[in-house]
Write a structure and sequence with these properties.
The chain is mainly alpha-helical. The chain is built from 1 helix and no strands. It has a domain at about 1-40: Erythroid Transcription Factor GATA-1, Chain A (2-Layer Sandwich).
């Protein structure tokens, strides 16, 4: 297998940080995520951003939908 960060080949069973070859490469990848250099690809769809809003009162207990 090849490390997605540095491209070094390694055996998947011999690393404590799969799919990375080392903790260093794992941390580099995490840094890229946190800096928003990389992200999960997504398709834009017909999702309405307003449908994700939560207008409930944070002080009011949530009701179960049972």
């Amino acid at each position: 297998m090849k490390c997605p960060t540095c491209g070094t080949g390694f055996l998947f069973d011999e690393t404590p940080t799969p799919p990375f070859c080392s903790v260093r490469c794992q941390q580099i990848d995490l840094g890229r995520w946190l800096d928003e250099e990389i992200g999960v690809p997504h398709e834009s769809g017909d999702l309405d951003p307003e449908s994700f809003r939560d207008d409930s009162d944070p002080d009011e207990p949530r009701r179960s939908s049972d």
